[in-house]
Amino acid sequence: MSKLEKLLSQVVSGRADANIAFADLRRLLLRLGFSERTRGSHHVFSREGIEERINVQESGSKAKPYQVKQVRAVIVKYGLEVNE
User: Fold this and answer.
1) pTM for this structure?
2) Are the C-beta atoms of 47 and 78 separated by less than 8 Å?
């Protein structure tokens, strides 16, 4: 199991929302096919075929827990997976 697959599993499980590194979550979203637009501290991710926009901000070196929950909701809703 790759590092990104483990991170995806961790995000989907919901056990450690406050302990997800921002850089790792960003890398995961990019690997899932999202494109990124940055405006100040806001990183907005979008993907063709997915109506939701994902807005992620750093809180120190971690992603904000409520934003990890939003990412999880999109991953589960669309059944997204990491393709190596």
Assistant:
1) 0.93
2) no
Report in angstroms the alpha-carbon separations of 20 from 14, 48, 51, 56, 83.
10, 25, 24, 12, 20
Per-residue pLDDT of the chain (84 residues), as tens digits, is 789 999 999 999 999 899 999 999 999 999 999 999 999 999 999 999 999 999 999 999 999 999 999 999 999 999 999 875
Alpha carbon distance 54, 15 (integer Å):
20
For the chain, the domains span 3-78
Q: Which CATH number fits domain 3-78: 3.30.2310.20, 3.20.20.140, 3.40.30.10, 3.30.920.30?
A: 3.30.920.30
